[in-house]
Design a protein that fits this description.
Layout: H1 6-15, H2 21-31, H3 39-47, H4 53-59, E1 68-69, E2 72-80, E3 84-90, E4 96-102, H5 110-124, E5 134-139, E6 146-151, E7 155-157, H6 158-165, H7 170-189, E8 192-193, E9 202-205, E10 210-212, E11 219-220, H8 235-244, H9 251-267, H10 278-281, H11 302-311, H12 323-337, H13 340-345, E12 350-354, H14 358-370, E13 374-378, H15 381-390, E14 395-399, H16 400-420, E15 426-431, E16 448-452, H17 457-467
């Protein structure tokens, strides 16, 4: 294939609508000539931001395949993996997406094509704030390339995050752990386990939210098999499950590997020995990691040590069995790290807040602690139920504007449980205008306030002070 000159490259770029007539005219004027090699024209268009270096490298070779996929203009590569490469792309409306393209060497391998398409279809079946959304899976008719279009997460993966930060503060690590566990719990509700948990498959968005990616090796929980052959899975998962004699797709395997991620977030060190040799990765002793965790490690306060030890226990029966148990342990760990346990012993009243908006979480935490409350916050409504059953609190604030129907049901369960057990617990239920018809289903509850529409923090505090006032410090006498 002959290398196009400047005029040839300009014609290709214009024909593909990568640049406009105005942009080309501007570049020609600045160059002072329309003849000669393509390199100076491409470098100029790149400096002006009209083309990316990746697009330029394709154009100078006369290679037009893959410059547009699924109606999106491919800009540059952002990641590469075993199955494919991931690119940033956009369209005329300014929408930015990530496009994963199956590597060409697998484009004739029917098994790899099936797995790649399966990844896209699995992703399209899930919609959760802690899972990267899959928008489409298709094949380009011209080039024959298989591709998946997904949500673009501005930020980086947890591995990149740790390369810069080395390790994370306990509260930040616990927050990311909870968000990742929320995504896994949601996937499990759809019958799926992840099968490939590691720092590179946990993306951290620009607002510091954890998002799971690459459910390509996801397997139906319970070890389901595709017709006629086993579903491919990572060597690490295969080694653990063989050593512990559980079926492939056991949710507790995801909990084990999530524990190894937690260890790396807290200490900056991998917990599993690192090796590329497949047989070494399958050895039983590689997964007996509890002896590698030191009780007196300064990066692991006692409550985090206990949480981690249970997550990475070798015997599956010694790990958390369901995600509700894990969420409860995360909540307790966060409370103890914040010093909340000591405040409770001194008689401080505890408020449990269910809120999925991160900014509102911060406002609740700061304002209620200022007033003297012990504050527990979760994005998971069922955690309010689990926590109340084991360790009752004094008040529940449930924001159904984000928790929706699940939040309403959890609120009713807690308040009814409080009445049956004669526990002094008040509740504040926050509803959107569209949810105001729910009022009649909870207005019979004792010590329950319902706030609808544009609710202010002042309104919430007034109700909380009415139902569960904190003791005011005595003013000095004579």
């Amino acid at each position: 294939m002959s290398i196009p000159d400047a005029t040839g490259v300009a014609q290709i770029a214009r024909r593909l609508d990568l640049v406009s007539d105005h942009q080309l005219s501007e570049a020609w004027d600045e160059l002072g000539t329309r003849t000669g090699p393509a390199e100076p024209l491409l470098r100029l268009l790149e400096r002006k931001g009209y083309l990316t270096p990746w697009q330029g490298s394709k154009l100078i070779k006369g290679d037009t395949d893959g410059l547009f996929l699924g109606g999106y203009r491919v800009l540059y590569r952002i990641a590469a993996g075993t199955f494919g490469r991931v690119y940033r792309a956009d369209n005329r409306s300014g929408e930015v997406v990530a496009i994963k393209v199956l590597r060409r060497r697998w484009s004739e391998d029917q098994r790899k094509i099936e797995l790649f398409e399966r990844e896209g279809k699995v992703g399209m079946s899930m919609e959760h704030p802690n899972i990267v959304r899959i928008l489409a899976v298709n094949r380009d008719a011209k080039s024959g390339q298989y591709y998946i279009i997904m949500e673009f997460v501005e930020g980086g993966n947890l591995r990149d995050f740790l390369l810069i930060r080395k390790k994370l503060e306990p509260l930040e690590a616990l927050r990311l752990l909870e968000e990742t566990a929320n995504g896994l719990a949601y996937a499990l509700s759809k019958g799926l386990t992840h099968r490939d948990l590691k720092p590179t498959n946990i993306l951290i968005s620009s607002n510091k939210t954890a998002k799971l990616v690459d459910f390509g090796l996801a397997e139906l929980a319970g070890g389901a098999r595709e017709e006629g052959e086993e579903i491919d899975r990572t060597v690490d998962y295969a080694g653990l499950e063989k050593a512990t004699n559980v079926r492939a797709g056991d949710p507790r395997s995801d909990i084990f590997f999530l524990g190894t991620v937690l260890h790396e977030m807290l200490t900056g060190r991998p917990l599993l020995s690192v090796t590329r040799e497949a047989r070494a990765r399958m050895l039983r002793q590689r997964f007996e990691v509890v002896n590698n965790i030191q009780r007196d490690d300064p990066d692991l306060p006692p409550v985090l040590y206990a949480l981690l030890m249970r997550m990475v226990a070798f015997e599956p029966t010694d790990r958390f069995q369901i995600y509700d148990q894990l969420h409860e342990a995360i909540l307790q760990a966060r409370t103890e790290v914040q010093g909340g346990g000591r405040a409770s012993a001194a008689g401080t009243k505890t408020v449990f807040v269910v809120e999925q908006n991160l900014q509102l979480q911060d406002r609740f935490r700061e304002r209620l602690k200022e007033l003297g409350y012990r504050v527990l916050i979760s994005i998971h409504p069922s955690q309010a139920v689990t926590r109340f059953q084991s360790n009752p609190f004094h008040a529940l604030i449930m924001d159904c504007r984000t928790a929706e129907r699940e939040g309403l049901e959890a609120y009713q369960r807690v308040m009814r449980d409080a009445e049956l057990r004669r526990i002094d617990c008040s509740g504040i239920l926050i509803l959107s205008d569209e949810q105001d018809h729910w009022v009649e289903s909870v207005d019979y509850l004792q010590k329950s306030a319902i706030l609808v529409g544009r609710v202010t923090m002042r309104q919430i505090i007034e109700k909380l002070d009415e139902f569960a006032p904190v003791e005011k410090p005595a003013v000095g006498g004579s």
